[in-house]
Amino acid sequence: MLLRRLLAVMLVSAVAASIQAQTSRDAGISSIADLDSAVHKVLSPTPQESREPIDWLARHGDRSSIAVLIQLLRWLPEYREMLDARLEALTGAHVGPHWFDWMVWQQDHPDLPRYAGYARFLTDLLVRIDPRFKRFIYDGIAHETRIEEIAWGGVIVDGIPALAAMTAASTANYLNPDDPVFGVEINGDARAYPLRIANWHEMVNDVVGGVPVSLAYCTLCGSGILFDDRVAGREEAFTFGSSGLLYRSNKLMFDRQTDSLWEQFTDRPVVGRLTGSKIELKPLPMVLTSWSEWRSRHPETRVLSLDTGFRRDYGPGVAYREYFSSPELMFPALVKIGGCARRISSLASAYRGASRRGRLPPSPMAQ
User: Fold this and answer.
1) Residue 22 class from Cβ within 10 Å (0-12 exposed, 13-18 middle, 19+ buried)?
2) Cβ neighbours of residue 343 under 8 Å, at least 6 residues apart?
3) Which of 21, 66, 147, 157, CA to CA, is 20 to 30 A from 174?
């Protein structure tokens, strides 16, 4: 009996709310009171429900809403012209109706007024893709990286899984003599990390010569860095995974101890509990060479096993084939270095220049 009454009350309330909303629309009365309510409602699951906050943002959004408008360009392409018009009115810039180009413009304007609720907005957006993103981004989170520039990289958390399994060189029959490998030797212990596997996984957690290390390889920017996972004052060494998030086309890895996001280039945590801790990982020497050259110098080396536990085509040059053969970028990155090529691969760092659009992963909100 009580359940029936409760259901009846819920039904009446829902009908009343629907009637009230329709009445408000018919009367031209907006249910959007301010930027917070517009941002909260704009991620509604249906186009009908998101239309009103989009209209509000297009009419009333101020300069503090610029980052929100830019983000919406990616996820709500049906409102692209409306959003672009508002961005032009607020900024005076004529960038074009694409998220990629506006992100590059935003990277070049670090002094824009910030919307205090942006982290909450980004969280609400990302959890629609994978609820685990809430481990990394949430309202009030500490950060030193400009959070408006964090972008979804097209995969879920650990969607690019880290590896640890190694095998003896004598069993690595899958490798060709000229296959490129990252090579490291510590205390007489040698490892080879073939790029044809690293391209798919981007992160290896290992112990070499008694030293816990992580290979952080950002395929998008062609940078591989080997870190010593030990930090003075901490008993436990860090282990890392791929968050699925990017900052200026560079991977944001996360440590499994605190779920803080780390910028690969800078070797330090930039979002989360460890932000401001002054912790920095120590980079270790590593070479990029051929498998035959590395094995000739280190015949007892161990190498990543082809038995990764994941179904991938680990053939030479398969992963990111189209991306590596093109000068275009897949994700926005602004680097001002005169005369520099768009992509320069390096063991320690890589710079991506120019604001050129590449192919982006499909939007989950559009599915």
Assistant:
1) exposed
2) 221, 222, 327, 329, 350, 352
3) 157
Compute the distance between CA of residue 311 and CA of residue 127 in angstroms, rounded to an integer: 26
- Can you read off the two tokens belonging to residue 82? 């409306």
Stretch (H or E) spanning 13: helix 2-26
d(Cα 363, Cα 76) in Å, to the nearest integer? 9
Percent of the chain at pLDDT > 90 equals 71
Residue the block writes with tokens 């959890």:
127
Q: Rounding to the nearest 10 degrees, give the CA dihedral for residues 166, 168, 169, 174.
A: -60
| Tokens (6 digits) for 148 | 């408006």
Instruction: Give the whole-angstrom CA distance, residue 171 versus residue 52.
Output: 62
The pLDDT, as a whole number, for residue 222 is 83
Predicted local distance difference test score (pLDDT) of residue 336? 66
Q: Is the pLDDT of residue 18 over 60?
A: no
Residue 104, phi then psi, degrees to nearest 5: -65, -40
Structure tokens at 198: 């690293």
Q: At what angle do helices 66-75 and 99-107 cross, to 10 degrees?
A: 150
Complete DSSP assignment for 18-72: HHHHHHHHHTT--S--SHHHHHHHHT-SSHHHHHHHHHHHHHH--GGGHHHHHHH
Q: Which of 55-69, 267-281, 334-348 has the lowest mean pLDDT?
A: 334-348
State residue 129 phi and psi, 5-degree precision. Answer: -85, -50
The answer for residues whose C-beta is within 8 angstroms of residue 38's C-beta and 6 or more apart is 32, 53, 56, 57, 60, 61
Give the pLDDT score at 14.
Answer: 37
Single-letter amino acid, residue 255: D
Q: With a cut of 90, say whether residue 3 has pLDDT above it.
A: no
